[in-house]
Structure formats: structure tokens, C-alpha cells
């Protein structure tokens, strides 16, 4: 077991992610402390070279399957994919991309699965650090100018840290992501159902199959066995 000091990690992270924080943080500016919410974005830059793959998970999870089975998902990455991540299961990005969607009425951006692009949820992440280091495209997307360009194109202003970054990048470059089945990150939060999206909510929230990981996001109780 290796313990990593949060302050040390944040110190390394800050210069890499500082520029993107203003686009994807809840605060109005760029806070040093916010950097830790972007840890996954630049994990390949701050972890030792000998670490080639990492699973990063939220704390509000309940496991119903062996985590080793999740690790085997790395073997299913297509050429060019660097991160494994499940889709967001609420219409949060239908909401966030409202202006882009209004200007592009035929877009798949923010639409529900299976044909739409609902965005991602970062509660369960498979980070192929080796592939992230090798990917010229992925590292270009971390550059402040590229982040600015994409946020302007999509009129994007988020507050969910790494999840917002991955979602926006995924709209432009879906080939960078291996989409995990919803059963690996069965999100339970229903906040958006009661905040204007009850008519389409179930199209996002539906998840068929035996749940492997429950995610009690927004403090939602997780079912007992």
C-alpha cells in the first residue's frame, strides 16, 4: 500500500489543470484546492512511470462483483482509447449543453442512449496511464488553448470537475473513451427528475442487467442486500 499526500499531488496538478478549472469548477474562479477534482485528468503526468493502469473510484459506491472483473475491462479498450468510463444516467448534460443544442437541433449531444451522447459519470474510472502518456491527441486536449476552444464551441460551463472535462472531450473525440456498461456504475441519484426533466428522465436512467457497482450519488441511499 502506498499512501499519496493530497497536498503534494495538488501541487503537481495545479499547473496542469489550472486553466480548465474556471470552466469546470463550482467556484467562480480558479482555486488551488479545486485541483484535486481534476486528479484523473492528469494522473498520467504525476504517477510514477511504472504505474501503467489505475482504477479510480468515488467513495459512495457499493460493490456487488469482484473488482478484478472490472480491471479486465482494460483488455477491451480499442486502439486509441485511454479511459474507461460509464455514461451519465441523468439528463444533466442535456441541461448543460442547452445553448449548443438550441443552435444545433439535430445534434446527438445531450441526447439519451443508445444513440445519443448523454455525457459521462466519473464515479468509476479506468485510467490507462500508459495509453494516456502515449496519446498525442489526449495531451493536446489538456492545453489551455484547446480547452478554451472546446468550451467556446459547446458554450460549456460546468461544475463537476473531471467529469465535465471528459464529457466535453467525449462529444468531440469519442474514440478516446471505452464506454463501460451502466451496471459498472449504476447511479441512483434522481435529482433531475424533479427539476424539469421528468418527461425524458427514464430514457437516461434506465439500466438493464445485473448491477455490479451501485453509486449512491447525491447522497442517495444504496439498496440493502
Task: Give a structural overview.
With 225 residues, this protein is of the alpha/beta class. It has a single domain, classed as Spore Coat Polysaccharide Biosynthesis Protein SpsA, Chain A (Alpha-Beta Complex). Helices cover 35% and strands 14% of the residues. It has ten helices and seven strands. It has helices at 6-24, 43-46, 67-71, 92-96, 98-103, 129-134, 136-141, 144-154, 162-172, 201-205; strands at 53-57, 61-63, 83-87, 120-128, 177-180, 186-187, 213-215. Strands 1-4-3-5 form a four-stranded mixed beta sheet. The chain has a three-stranded mixed beta sheet with strand order 2-7-6, with no helix packed on it. Helix 10 (201-205) links the parallel strand 6 (186-187) and strand 7 (213-215). Helix 1 (6-24) packs parallel to helix 8. It is globular. InterPro entries: Glyco_trans_8 (IPR002495), Nucleotide-diphossugar_trans (IPR029044), XXLT1 (IPR042465). It holds the Pfam family Glyco_transf_8. Keywords: Transferase. GO terms for molecular function: xylosyl alpha-1,3-xylosyltransferase activity. This is XXLT1 xylosyltransferase.
How many separate domains make up the residues?
A: 1
Tally of separate helices: 10
Radius of gyration of CA atoms, rounded to a whole number: 17 Å
The CATH topology corresponds to Spore Coat Polysaccharide Biosynthesis Protein SpsA, Chain A
Strand ordering within the main sheet = 1-4-3-5
Order of helices and strands: HHEEHEHHEHHHHEEHE
**Largest sheet descriptor:** 4 strands, mixed
Structural class: alpha/beta
Helix content: 25-40%
Amino acid at each position: 500500500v502506498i499512501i499519496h499526500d493530497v497536498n503534494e499531488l495538488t501541487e503537481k496538478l495545479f499547473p496542469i489543470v489550472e486553466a480548465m478549472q474556471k470552466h469546470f469548477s463550482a467556484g467562480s474562479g480558479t482555486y488551488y484546492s479545486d485541483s484535486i477534482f481534476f486528479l484523473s485528468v492528469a494522473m498520467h503526468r504525476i504517477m510514477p512511470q511504472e504505474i501503467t493502469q489505475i482504477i479510480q473510484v468515488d467513495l459512495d459506491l457499493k460493490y456487488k462483483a469482484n473488482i478484478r472483473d472490472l480491471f479486465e475491462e482494460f483488455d477491451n479498450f480499442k486502439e486509441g482509447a485511454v479511459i474507461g468510463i460509464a455514461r451519465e444516467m441523468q439528463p444533466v448534460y442535456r441541461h448543460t449543453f442547452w445553448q449548443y443544442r438550441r443552435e444545433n437541433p439535430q445534434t446527438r449531444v445531450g441526447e439519451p442512449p443508445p444513440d445519443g451522447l448523454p455525457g459521462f459519470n466519473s464515479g468509476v474510472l479506468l485510467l490507462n496511464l500508459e495509453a494516456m502518456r502515449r496519446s498525442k491527441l489526449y495531451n493536446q486536449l489538456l492545453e489551455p488553448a484547446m480547452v478554451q476552444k472546446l468550451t467556446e464551441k459547446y458554450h460549456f460551463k460546468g461544475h463537476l470537475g473531471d467529469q465535465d472535462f471528459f464529457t466535453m472531450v467525449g462529444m468531440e473525440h469519442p474514440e478516446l473513451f471505452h464506454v463501460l456498461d451502466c451496471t459498472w456504475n449504476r447511479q441512483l441519484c434522481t435529482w433531475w427528475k424533479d427539476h424539469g426533466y421528468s418527461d425524458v428522465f427514464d430514457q437516461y436512467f434506465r439500466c438493464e442487467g445485473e448491477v455490479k457497482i451501485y453509486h449512491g450519488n447525491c447522497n442517495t441511499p444504496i439498496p440493502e442486500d
